[in-house]
Design goal:
Layout: E1 2-7, H1 11-21, E2 27-33, H2 36-40, E3 50-53, H3 62-72, E4 77-82, H4 87-95, E5 100-103, H5 108-119, E6 124-125, H6 127-137, H7 149-159, H8 164-171, H9 175-191
Helix pairs in contact: 8-9
């Protein structure tokens, strides 16, 4: 029996994962956590086999939770389960200690396959995340990349010396998510060596 925890703050997502995975006899959903705080208070991590982990949580991020999980239980397998599908997010998540990555929207059989493979010592990437990784590595070179409209807007807001509160309101995100998006934008600029200089915030 594979013991699984879900670290995700959207109740509908949690509900669908539970209902979908409970159909498998070898899967036991032990618990779910909507915040880092609730996870850190959990005393049964050493008995968990697999964690399905979202990147964006109300009080922390999956990037911070990954090393914590591995420290408490070095044998735990971590599968990123997020709506973020850019290479930068996937790469950073894997570097933090994850064993696989699934973009939200994947079907339950795909998630079950991911659990099975990581438990067998393999890495797993869903079709979308796998394509992102293949595209970045197929030529062994850094490809041409364009900034999205949202990223361009964010750069303009930062260069105009707007406060983080002003930027978060402009892009329709809370403060924590805004900081995460800015950090990932910086990583993208650095990785692709884009000619963009952002001010400190």
């Amino acid at each position: 029996m594979r013991k699984v925890i879900i670290i995700e703050d959207h109740p509908i997502v949690v509900f669908n994962l539970k209902i979908g995975l409970q159909q498998y006899d070898d899967i036991h959903i032990v618990d779910n956590f909507s915040t880092g705080k609730s996870l850190f208070e959990f005393t049964g991590l050493k008995d968990i086999d697999v964690a399905l982990l979202d990147i964006n949580l109300p009080d922390t991020s999956g990037f911070e939770i990954c090393p914590y999980l591995k420290k408490v239980n070095p044998h735990i397998k971590i599968i990123g389960y997020s709506s973020f599908e850019d290479y930068e997010y996937i790469n950073r998540f894997m570097k933090a200690g994850a064993d696989g990555y699934i973009v939200k929207g994947a079907k339950i059989p795909t998630i079950y396959e991911a659990i099975t493979k990581v438990m067998n010592g393999e890495f797993f990437f869903c079709e979308i995340s796998s394509e992102k990784l293949e595209n970045i590595h197929k030529d062994n070179s850094i490809p041409t990349v364009k900034l999205t409209k949202r990223e361009t807007q964010l750069i303009e807001l930062l260069k105009a010396n707007n406060s983080l509160d002003q930027i978060s309101k402009a892009i329709g995100e809370d403060l924590k998510t805004t900081i995460l998006i800015i950090d990932m934008l910086k990583e993208k600029i650095n990785f692709y060596q884009l000619p963009v200089l952002l001010p400190e915030y």
